[in-house]
Amino acid sequence: MYEEIKKAANIAKKVRIFSEKLLKPEESLLNIAEQIEQKIIDLGGLPAFPVNISINNIAAHYTPTFDDKSILKEGDVVKVDFGVQFDGYIIDTAYTVEINDNKYENLIKASKEALENVRKNIRRDMTLGKIGSIIENTIKSYGYNPIYNLSGHRIDRYILHAGENVPNYDNGSDIKLSRGLYAIEPFATNGSGYVKDGEPSTIYIFINIKPIRDPSIRKFMEELFNKYKTLPFCYRWLYKEYGNKVNVKFAVEYLKKNKIIYEYPVLLENPGYVVTQFETTFFVNDGVEDLMSE
After folding, report:
1. 263 is known as an active-site residue
2. Which of 10, 72, 92, 241 is deepest in the core (most CB within 10 A)?
3. Residue 77 is part of which domain span?
4. Catalytic annotation, pick one of 153, 164, 170, 269
5. Using one digit for the tens of pLDDT, what is the confidence trace for 209-252?
6. pTM
7. What is the longest distance spanned by two Cα atoms in the chain?
């Protein structure tokens, strides 16, 4: 287990350095996402989920579509959230960059320092509420709000969100860190501190396997589940893999309608406000190791 985790972490560290060089004005989000995902594969891993490239008031779950024309612009505050899996063991990480500007420098510092303060103080048996308190106090010291309805999460093999949530504020939880992997991801905002559901994201996850009469859709479902298991995947990947061999749109809508897969919504702060995010994955054993640290 630990060997696989370290392999995923080493890939993630290299991919992060690689990805930062892609963030420049006029660069297409589709090209950025596909280059990051391909780099993960080239280094011997697999994407644990579609790369999220969430800009300004978009907090999470934006991944480019197969025909996405969106580009980065001067002044955009860009959150890049990606994951690497090796044999099902996952590293989840994220960072924020402002494109050729420093208007939101302190907002970026707020989420980054919140994670740094967790890193300095985290220990086994610390309560989740205490971690949330460190994040909340740091972000508020800058005059901003944490995102109260977003959180970090425990990670298990092939399961990105494994039940326990790590809050971005002191929610009073007395649940303690136990052996395993935890993604901790402070979100800071100059807005309300709450996100709401936006448009569908084209990112999906299996929630229930059911019998399907249609043989082509049943085959499609089985192939997807064998490949992605309980990890998220996206329409862009399916379109690229199946092309005209399968009516992907029809098959995906069928699986959604029958509650076999769930489609994540894009998560939004109020218009005109900005969200920043930093994330790392900790391995809790006798001590606590930040797997993304050098």
Report:
1. no
2. 92
3. 2-195+269-290
4. 153
5. 999 999 999 999 999 999 999 999 999 999 999 987 789 999 99
6. 0.96
7. 58
